[in-house]
Every structure is written in C-alpha cells, then in structure tokens.
Design a protein that fits this description.
The complex is a heterodimer of chains A (198) and B (234).
Chain A lengths: L6 E5 L10 H9 L3 H23 L2 H18 L10 H20 L23 E5 H11 L3 H13 L3 H8 L3 H19 L4
Helix pairs in contact in A: 1-2, 2-3, 2-4, 3-4, 5-8, 6-7, 6-8, 7-8
Chain B lengths: L2 H5 L2 H5 L5 H13 L1 H17 L9 H11 L18 H11 L22 H12 L5 E6 L5 E7 L4 E7 L8 E9 L2 E8 L3 E6 L4 E10 L12 E4 L1
Antiparallel strand pairs in B: 1-2, 2-3, 3-6, 4-5, 4-7, 7-8
Classes of the chains: A mainly alpha (198), B alpha+beta (234).
Chain lengths: 198, 234
C-alpha cells in the first residue's frame, strides 16, 4: 500500500505589520460582526484545530471541540481583555483548556501514553494533507530542546497530552512539588528563549 | 492552601495541568492577586506559542457550520458599569475614581460588568465620565419611575459623549435585564445591560437623537424586542 501523499510547505512567519489586528477583530465579534468572526476563524482556525488534533488525537472529536471553541469565542468575545494579553493567546488558551477537558473526559489511559516524537514532525492520516511547518514551529522546537529532560517532559506531558501535574508526577516518578517547579522553570526558560511578551 | 502553595500553581494553571477543583480555587485566587495575573499573562502567552507546532488546516465544513451557527447564536453583551453615586456631582467626582469596580465578564448582583474595550483602562473611563459630568455644556435629562428608581442622562456636546446613570430600578423577574440603547434615526445600538443599577458612557453622538431603555431577556438582545420603558433625548 502506498503512503498517502503529503506536502510540506515551509512558510515564513507573517510580518507583524501585515498580520490582521486580531484584537480589533474580537472587538467587532463582541458586537455581533459575523464577518469579523469569519476573519478570526480564517486566521486562527488551523492553530485551534491543529492543537485539538494534537491533544485529542481522534479527528472527529477534535473537530467537534474546535467547533465548541469557536462558538465560545463568538458567545464570549466580550470577555477578551487586551490589557491581559494578545487575542491569539486568549484564543489558544481557551482552545487548550477545552481540548484538555475533552481528553480527560473521553480518552482511555492507553492513548495518553503516547508521547510526541519530535523527530518525525506532526502526525497526519489524511491523504494529500498540506502541513505547514512555520518558522514559529522551528523556534518552539529549538527552545524546547534547551529545556532539561525533566522540564521538557513536564511541559510536554501537560501541554500536549493533557496530564495534570499529579499525573505527570506519577509518570515521571517525581513528587508534586518538583513537577510544579519544573513546569515553572520550563515555562520561564521557554518564555525567555522565545522572547515572549504577554 | 498557603500563599506559597497557591503561587506554585501558576505554571501548572497556565499549562492546564490542574484538576478541576484546583483550577476553580485558583480562579478565585486570581481575582485577588494582581501579581499572579501579570505572571500568568506571560505564561499563557508562552503556552499559546507551544500551540504553534501543531497548526493544521481544518475540514472545510467546519467554517460553514460555524458561520451558519453564529447567525442565530446569542452573545454575552457588554454590560453597564455600576459606580456609587451621589446627588451632588462635586462630592461625587473623587468618589467615582475610587469606587469603580471593573471586572470583565463578571456579572454581579448590581450588574457590575465593564463595557468591553474599556476593560484595560479603568482610569481613562472614570476620567471620561467625570469629564462629561463636569463639562460646562453638560445637559441633564431624567426620568423617575413610580415603582421606584430613576434614570439620568447627562449629555455634553463638547465632549461628544453622554453618560447614563440608572439607580434603584424596579426588580425584574429572573431571566430579564434592562438594556440601554443609543438610537440614530431608527437604528438602535446596544450600550449594555444591567439588573438594578448601572452606568455607562456613550461616545460619538453624531446623528444620535435619543437613548432608550428596554427590558430584554438575560444576556441582552441584538435589537429591542419591546417598547422602551424610558426614552431620553440626547
């Protein structure tokens, strides 16, 4: 059986001054602007869906959760506070929380044992799917590599597999306080490595 | 849970690695800890970047389904800020600056929800309101209700803004709120909702001839669904 054809595109990061003003779009969404909502989906739909696929694995469930995320964006855009962070951060935080809640609710223990294998790139199982490896992806990968083994695993299991810190502690044979500290140290290192500003 | 324990939860919280009970407890703590909110903002932004590695085009039907769904889906509305009030404006001015309670997305008994877009700039909103109240061309219209309560609209052409105060409004049954509308010609634009009292500032009065209040289902309506209980000329 032949492998599904897959195309990889290397995409340059969008220049900041041509990226759409997501904060402005959310402001309009909160006022009921459906076109603005469509624009938010066009900009962030792939990020939300990709994250859901990654955490939840099951494609149908991931699609369902992605729909729930965007419905939540529509219903509660009024809650976005630009002083507390970027629009993209708000959306992905919401998406991650829903994805994690879904995976804890649904998924059998065996699925959650799968750890992300950085050497192969993302998995996909549809024919002729285009996957964009962006420069942002490369930066995250590079910065993740700078973490210690324990920091890396703590962040990885929590973010990409939806583990609680107690489950991470059990998986890694460490105590709760240590895991929480490693999560903190890992996030601080990532934050500084990527030059993230809230 | 000691304070030290709570602060060690910031990173797990940002990674959604707390169980639902811990998350709920930490949500409450967040409301009281400005330092935590600041640190969390950075961690959330960092965690959001972790999502970059997994971008994947969604199925085409997803967008279509969403656009169909939002055409009929209700939204949470920006609601009206409540500030403590005094009948004497001069005494009120410094008190307004201290009494403003701005919580985005939280509806309290008095309807304390901030007008979206003003959320990050409490001082600016307070100053804008006091500027209208203190303007030399400030013009006041008011209406009292026989069941109790009153509404006051202060308009200033020089500030191109109007402030509305609603106070001690008659209680509504569950599932109903008061909604404030700014009306240009025959087109109303929602300015927010409240339960018993509220204040909001409306900016940009070109072609606006009146402000109205209607009673709507909780969460507000896209357009008024009943006759106004109060209409005040701008």
């Amino acid at each position: 059986m032949s492998q599904p054809a897959t195309r990889l595109r290397l995409a340059a990061a969008a220049e900041p001054d041509v990226a759409p003003d997501l904060g402005g779009l959310l402001l309009r969404v909160a006022r009921g602007d459906e076109a603005a909502f469509g624009a938010v989906f066009d900009e962030l739909g792939a990020s939300v869906y990709g994250l859901a696929r990654r955490v939840i694995r099951d494609p149908a469930r991931a699609e369902e959760v992605s729909q729930e995320v965007f419905m939540q964006i529509w219903q509660s855009a009024v809650r976005f506070d630009p002083a507390r962070g970027s629009a993209k951060s708000w959306v992905l935080t919401l998406a991650h929380r829903r994805a994690v809640d879904a995976v804890r609710h649904d998924q059998a223990a065996t699925n959650r044992e799968n750890k992300y294998d950085w050497s192969n790139g993302p998995d996909f199982d549809e024919v002729a799917e285009t996957v964009t490896i962006s420069l942002e992806h490369e930066q995250v990968r590079r910065c993740m590599e700078r973490l210690t083994e324990l920091q890396h695993e703590a962040v990885n299991l929590a973010y990409y597999n939806g583990y609680t810190y107690a489950e991470v502690a059990e998986a890694l044979g460490a105590n709760h306080a240590t895991v929480k500290t490693r999560m903190r140290d890992g996030l601080v290192r990532l934050r500084d490595c990527m030059g993230v500003e809230a | 849970m000691t304070t030290v324990d709570l602060h060690s939860m910031i990173a797990p919280y940002a990674l959604n690695a707390l169980d639902s009970q811990e998350r709920a407890r930490f949500d409450i703590h967040l409301q009281q800890c400005a330092h935590c909110r600041v640190e969390l903002a950075g961690f959330h932004a960092t965690a959001a970047r972790l999502g970059d590695v997994s971008s994947q085009a969604p199925p085409a039907e997803l967008r279509d389904r969403l656009m169909t769904a939002v055409a009929s889906a209700l939204q949470e509305r920006p609601a009206v800020v409540a500030l403590t009030q005094s009948s004497r404006i001069r005494r009120t001015l410094p008190r307004l600056a201290m009494a403003a309670a701005f919580l985005v997305g939280t509806v309290g008994v008095g309807g304390f929800v901030v007008e979206r877009g003003q959320a990050g700039d409490e001082r600016a909103v307070t100053m804008a309101i006091t500027s209208v109240l203190a303007a030399p061309d400030a013009d006041t219209k008011s209406k009292s209700f026989k069941e109790g309560g009153n509404v006051r609209l202060i308009t200033s052409a020089s500030r191109d803004s109007a402030v509305i105060f609603a106070n001690d409004m008659p209680g509504l049954e569950d599932g109903k709120v008061y909604q404030v509308w700014m009306i240009k010609g025959s087109s109303p634009t929602s300015q927010g909702t409240f339960k018993t009292r509220g204040t909001t500032i409306m900016k940009g009065l070109t072609d606006v001839d009146r402000v109205a209040i209607t009673i709507e289902p909780s969460g507000g309506s896209k357009q008024p669904t009943s006759a106004p209980i109060a209409t005040l000329a701008v």
